[in-house]
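An example makes the point: we let one protein speak, the chain in one-letter code, the fold tokenised, and here it is:
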Amino acid sequence: MKLLLHVCCAPDATIAPERLAGRGDVRLFFDNPNIQPLEEYSRRLHAFMKLVCATGMDYRIGLYDPETWFEAVRGHEADPEKGERCRLCVAFRLERTARQAVRCGFDTLGTVLTTSPHKDAAMIFGLGREIAGRRGLIFLEEDFKKRDGFKRSVQLCREWDIYRQNYCGCVYSIRK
């Protein structure tokens, strides 16, 4: 397996190195144009780099272009959390990751979004299979929160002094 693993935030990615050890070539891909404001994006990128230093994993960083994200969710600004806007956001980021995977010769696409107990793994898996399939990729259906994955991620964040955010990342989730 040659896996490009989308990383939404460092806390959700902490468990991935343990869970994926020995399963192939894994590269992390931090790609989150949904994160606002810019200061928050910078804070999360810094936390991601701390994770990379702690794990030694190979990585890529996507272009921070929030305007493309705003366009992708336009008309859904008032949707509730876990509604259509969130589905569009996940699809947007998985699509960008899939394009990167194809460009760089990966055969498998995955995401650490499933570490969060606030994310719907079934929805993510459905989108992932669809997007990966259109691009000739395999989608890794790994629910990282299972087997105490979320609890372990909290523990690793403490050990590695990694910033844990208190909202999803988009401006619309701040209002909650």
Summary: The mean pLDDT is 95.
